[in-house]
Write a structure and sequence with these properties.
The complex is a heterodimer of chains A (660) and B (144). Chain A has 660 residues and is mainly beta. Helix content of chain A is 9%, strand content 60%. Among the domains of chain A are: 159 residues, no CATH class; 104 residues, no CATH class; 154 residues, no CATH class. Chain A has seven helices and 46 strands. Chain A has a 46-stranded antiparallel β-sheet that branches. Chain B starts with 5 loop residues before the first helix and ends with a strand. Chain B has four helices and four strands; from the N terminus they run ααββααββ. The longest helix of chain B is centred in the middle third of the chain and has 28 residues. Chain B is globular, with a radius of gyration of 15 Å.
């Protein structure tokens, strides 16, 4: 950015040559080493200056050649120049129509280019310039300049391969300054292409007035065409901004800035920038009510995608605000209004979401989170509202009852702590599911009708190192028995690569209820089951050691012909041979003494074992009474996917194996 | 921690490579595999159709550590760079999970890093001519 000249330039020694502006304006600290008339024409003047020192400008190795003072051509060369902390090397300036007189300096047709071979490959930067010492009026204009021509002057452009046209007009005197910058068809890219713009049209206008030792300024910008990619974000044009603030030697202050992003909403912001240290002192922003769908699609989802996090959709409105100072975030506000949020996989959907999160780094605050309804998988979730206690990076819920079907999900304690240094979360949870009827649950999950109710308690769970681990066990009462899930661990629970581990124990489940429920023939009795080392990835079993056996106790034990047929069908077409019924006849039910089957799943293959070895096979059902039955398995190994399809076929009643 | 001997790592890598999606070009291997990698294989196979043009254009290259890298986004139209970055992030998440799962399946999670390196070399070896791969020096080269 160009700034007006110092309104009260320090006076330096006047050189002998006709260049009073140099001495007055720049304040030569070092000596003018050589002044020599070496031009071939008597009217020409050549100067060689070793160095110039000024708080804002330094230059070394300066040569100037004025062919015809008053109306001729002037050429300057700077071996090194430093302006406002930015260093330039080997700059060549040419000016046609150059004039120096009592009115000042005029260069109506000038150009700047980098010297040497690098400059020869690039177009020169055309400009016009005038300076009137009487009132300090300066005019600088650049019209139709190729963007790449700026690279000798704007160091940060180097390496960005800029293309496009730029017009600039700067008018300033000792009291005020005005700037207009227009960029057309701007194209640029970082070396890796992760920051790039194409076809961009940008207009910037600014005005400044001298106030005391500094300036008060107003600016407006309009990005009207083109596209910008700043990984992981991408945006098309449609951004307008206006701002005002102050500027002095130490600080650039943006007191009030307003940013309008088409399709998203408006943002009001402020900034204080330390010009000496080159870093922000403080900043803050407040948004208007933003379109949540656009914010989620254009800003949040790309950030999540770059971290391979799940996709989600959102509609509604959102508001955000934040304040940052002294190197850290001081407070943050996030609000959601009439929002609907759903993950793309369809696991979770919430609607009527109203959230208010007023976070403060130093003080405790309370957030509220209310939901009109939604669903978790196929389970409908009723409305709820919950206060969330916030204290720095520690947040928690003391108690929450979330309606699910005819029961509720109860949260007795939920705490989450964020470690900003490590960027990780830790947390703990205690709660459970209470009073959900299995009939409603089964219907919601599109499972066969079941009796009983679901109650599960989670005495404690912790989250650390991307792993959710359960303390104690979850107990579910179902089929008149109990199922206990212990050693539960979920790795990467919020990622697609999540992995689930647990040990499951079932005791005294009513076989008649179970088999009726799943249309698996009819077996009377009770059974116990252990599934040890169960490991799932995305609900696909990877490995387990499972064993099902009849429970000990005094209760009727029988198995129907249909159940025998279904058991045999699990072994495949040859499975029917495994059933030996004696006497078979037309009996529909058979007594049994023991029943048991085990499967060790590993590498996609289920390896079966039974109650005991039996010849070349293994005993699954040991009969008792008359008629009795023995079921012997010969299939030692079955592909897991094949087994699942057989179970599904049996339940669907499509397999009709024959019994001897 | 016991390290997987280099030779064993190579043998293991060769053996397992036959079971998992070989460098993206070998789709015929996709039906085979240990169960732990089946789901990852499916996701990677689905994604391969979208990644292949990025490999061919040179926008994405195969790194020696078994990951893929958006090495030159500038080749792509501006509007496609965001999607390419997301594809690369998703592919790398699956590849990391794949190496971890293979190590687990072989009973030694500590092998993960060796398997990653072994696979990285194998993807590079199998990459067709014209794809960009990372040389031992770390520089990116177009495979002849």
């Amino acid at each position: 950015m160009c700034f007006p000249p110092d309104p009260e330039p320090r006076r330096g020694p006047r050189p002998a040559a006709r260049a009073p502006w140099v001495a007055r304006g720049a304040g030569i600290a070092a000596a003018v080493l050589l002044l020599a008339d070496a031009s071939p024409s008597p009217a020409a003047v050549s100067l060689t200056i070793a160095s110039i020192r000024h708080p804002a400008v330094e230059a070394d190795g300066i040569t100037a050649h004025v062919a015809e003072p008053g109306s001729g051509v002037a050429e300057l060369h700077f071996a090194r120049m430093r302006i406002a902390g930015v260093e330039y090397e080997d700059l060549a300036v040419r000016c046609e129509g150059f004039a120096v007189d009592a009115e000042g300096i005029r260069c109506p047709r000038g150009s700047v280019r980098r010297g040497g071979a690098r400059g020869a490959d690039r177009p020169p930067l055309p400009f016009s310039f005038s300076y009137r010492p009487r009132d300090g009026r300066l005019e600088l204009a650049v019209t139709g300049a190729d963007a790449v021509a700026w690279s000798p002057l704007v160091r940060r452009l180097r390496g960005w391969k800029p293309e496009g046209r730029a017009d600039l007009r700067l008018v300033a005197d000792r009291r005020e300054a005005g700037l207009a910058l227009s960029l057309r068809g701007l194209r640029f890219a970082s070396r890796d292409g992760l920051v790039a713009g194409e076809g961009m049209d940008l207009d910037l206008s600014a005005r400044a007035e001298r106030r005391g030792r500094g300036w008060t300024w107003w600016a407006a910008a309009d990005w009207s065409a083109g596209e910008l990619h700043w990984a992981p974000w991408y945006r098309k044009a449609g951004v307008r901004a206006s701002a005002e603030g102050t500027l002095d030697e130490e600080e650039l202050a943006v007191d009030l800035a307003r940013l309008d992003l088409e399709g998203l909403g408006g943002v009001t912001a402020s900034l204080a920038w330390d010009r000496i240290r080159g870093e922000p002192l403080r900043w803050g922003f407040v948004t208007e009510s933003l379109d949540l769908a656009a914010a989620a699609r254009e800003w949040v989802q790309p950030w999540l995608d770059a971290r391979a996090a799940p996709k989600f959709r959102a509609t509604g409105h959102a508001r955000f605000a934040a304040e940052w100072s002294a190197g850290r975030l001081r407070n943050l506000y996030a609000g959601l209004e009439e929002a609907r949020i759903a993950d793309e996989a369809g696991h979770l959907e919430l609607h009527g979401v109203e959230a208010r999160v007023p976070w403060d780094a130093e003080q405790a605050a309370e957030a509220t989170f209310a939901v009109a309804g939604g669903r978790l998988g196929d389970l409908p979730i009723g409305g709820f509202s919950v206060p969330v206690a916030l204290h720095g990076y520690d947040m928690g819920i003391d108690r929450l009852a979330l309606p699910i079907l005819d029961g509720r999900l109860a949260v007795d304690d939920l705490r989450a702590v964020f470690d900003p240094a490590a960027g990780t979360w830790r947390g703990r949870f205690a709660g459970g599911v209470e009073g959900v009827s299995m009939a409603k649950l089964a219907a919601a999950l599109k499972l066969p009708a079941m009796a009983g109710s679901l109650s599960a308690r989670v005495p404690g769970a912790t989250y650390a190192d991307r792993t959710l681990a359960l303390d104690g066990a979850i107990e579910v009462r179902v089929f008149d028995g109990r199922v206990t899930v212990g050693g539960l661990r979920i790795e990467d629970p919020l990622r697609r690569t999540q992995r689930f581990r647990a040990d499951v124990e079932a005791r005294g489940l009513d076989l008649a209820m179970l088999t009726r429920t799943f249309s698996f023939g009819t077996i009377e009795g009770r059974f116990d089951a252990d599934i040890l080392g169960l490991e799932l990835a995305g609900w696909t079993p990877l490995r387990f050691d499972a064993r099902v056996r009849g429970s000990e106790g005094d209760f009727p034990r029988s198995i129907s012909r249909g159940a025998l047929r279904d058991i045999s069908a699990l072994g495949g077409a040859a499975g029917a041979d495994a059933v030996q019924a004696s006497p078979a006849g037309l009996a529909q039910r058979f007594g049994y003494r023991r029943i048991g089957l085990g499967c060790v799943l590993e590498n996609g293959v289920c390896r079966f074992h039974g109650l005991a070895p039996e010849g070349r096979g293994y005993l699954i059902v040991e009969g008792a009474g008359i008629p009795s039955v023995r079921v012997i398995g010969y299939n030692r190994a079955v592909d897991w996917n094949l087994l699942v399809s057989r179970i599904q076929a049996v339940i669907a009643g499509r397999v009709k194996a024959e019994i001897e | 921690m016991r390290r997987l001997p280099r030779a064993a790592a190579l043998v293991l890598g060769m053996a397992v490579a036959a079971l998992v999606p070989a460098p993206p070009a070998a789709a015929e291997d996709l039906d085979l595999g240990a169960p732990g990698v089946v789901r990852l294989k499916a996701a990677m196979a689905d994604r391969h159709g979208q990644l292949k043009p990025l490999y061919e254009s040179g926008a994405v290259g195969l790194a020696r550590d078994g990951s893929v890298v958006l090495r030159d986004a500038g080749i792509l139209p501006l509007s496609q760079r965001q999607a390419a970055g997301a594809l690369v992030a998703a592919e790398n998440a699956d590849r990391t999970a794949l190496y971890r799962e293979i190590a687990r399946a072989n009973g030694n999670p500590a092998w993960e890093q060796d398997i990653r390196i072994t696979f990285g070399q194998r993807w590079i070896d199998r990459a067709p001519a014209g794809w960009w791969v990372q040389a031992a020096t770390g520089a990116w080269v177009r495979k002849p």
